[in-house]
Amino acid sequence: MTAAASKQSEFALAQSVTTLPGVGPERTAQLARLEIFTIEDLLLHRPRRYEDRRHLRAIRDLQEGEAAATHGRIVALGVKWFKQHTKSVFEIVLDDGTARLHCRWWNLPFMEKYFATGDEVIAFGKPVSLKPRVMDHPETEVVEGGEESVIHFNRLTPVYPLTEGLPQRWLRSLIWRTLERFEPHIADPWNASAVEGNKAQGLGSGRPLPSRARALHMLHVPEAEHEPDLARRRLALDEFVELQCGIQQRRRNLETKAQALPCGGDNRLIRPFLAQRFVRPASDAAAAPGRCGFGQDRCGGVLCLDDA
After folding, report:
1. Other Cβ atoms within 10 Å of 218 Cβ, number
2. Residues 31/37, Cβ–Cβ less than 8 Å
3. pLDDT in tens, 217-270
4. For residue 228, what are the domain limits?
5. Which of 44, 115, 176, 241 falls 20 to 30 Å from 256 in CA-CA distance?
6. Side-chain half-sphere exposure of 260, counting CA atoms within 13 A
7. pTM given for the model
């Protein structure tokens, strides 16, 4: 890639997220809480896990204490209050035709406004009991139809870290659309020809390292279970190389610009001290190479006088 193309790529990725469609002041503030300010920050926002939504588990096949993703339609929901209206539990009941699953949220009555009877919901969590089947505080996502269903279903679906008020579906859709638009502008920040096409034995992956653009694609749109890990390895290598380049630049600046401090004096204090004290004994002739033969105390005294 030419220098001009590299500069153009950097400019494209350095644009603010406010330039993206659908990102207004409220969404900008929410993204800022996740330390997402630029398009590059958005593309580097890594999923914390993935759900295999190609094969969701049936409710009847859920196992107690085993994390799993399932889905069903809401057949009942409501808030129950107790202890003089100071404690509550909000519950939805999902039915997928094989069994029913009770999803509960303790002391979060406002959750009721996010669901409605008849909604199809994906739930991820660990069942705490099987009679009845219950999940406490599961992660949920309401299924919506439309063209974006390919983004959220029938694939290894990324689940991103969120902040208050930021929906998972909205952030996933934003990253998908942004990656589609800016992937051609993603350049390798350093010469990766030495590792591309070779085995990444130093990273322990045993697979060829992808380009940076391909790594970001594998991170957000993985086609196989090993791809996110390989993508993280490539991005970690980029961070390591960037750190090492920064250290080398600082070293070069130090070597070319730094000036030694002047050391004045005529050794008038050290010379009399050496003449009186540092008479090398004959036995010191066989002293080990690299050692002064006078002892640490005497050498320390020379340094003190030199500083004086």
Report:
1. 21
2. yes
3. 999 999 999 999 999 999 999 999 889 989 999 999 988 888 877 777 777 878
4. 201-256
5. 241
6. 3
7. 0.70
